[in-house]
Amino acid sequence: MTLGAIELSILLPALAAGLLVSATHVPLGTQVLARGIVFIDLAIAQVAGCGVLLADQLGFEPEGFAVQVAALIAALGGALLLTWTERIWPEVQEAVIGVVFILAATGSVLLLASNVHGSEHLRDLLVGQILWVNPRWLAWTALIYAGILALWFGARARIGRIGFYVLFALAVTVSVQLVGVYLVFASLIVPPLATRRMNRYRLPAAWALAATGYASGLLVSTALDLPTGPTIVWALVVLSLCWYAAFAARREQAAAVVR
Fold it and tell me: Which residues, other chains included, contact 164 with Cβ-Cβ below 8 Å and sequence gap of 6+?
């Protein structure tokens, strides 16, 4: 097998993982921005990560069913807690989300305090290992994400606040184990933020930005031998800034013509 073929065998599953994450996170991120709860994804992702680390400390297989269940239970618990706080303390919901995040983040450190490989586990949780994603998990991930998208686009008006948080927790639980906390946050927030002033075709534009960011980030990280997750985050932000600047300039030109 040639070097190029080896690189493709690694990059294509990684790109597929990024596209799957983007498919669900872009529409959910648009709702997160609309609700003004930007840091909920960091909080829920970190809580799900705590579930993964706890299961690992208890001796379960890293990719086993028990770990998935632990992560999902932790994420759902955090999501339902934030649903409750949003109902009783809506004026400080963002602050509560911040507290949940910092508790989950420090909880992860405490869980790994006695683990000789603790720093590696924590780095993998935050930065992710998208280049080493297991292709067998992608089919299951696609099925889960398809169900989430079907409920989101088919029953969004009926699922209510609790339904949103549950779908959000499920999506983040899966994605944080695929790409890590940082890429989960970037995928949810950066493309919807760049397209927030678009009245038409916002969702397709945000999806295109996310897909281009993942593809270009993977190529740059491979070419320059840089850490993949952080490189994709930077690619997403740079492309989104360029998109926003171009869109703003176009709007100004259109407004000048009208005047």
Answer: 31
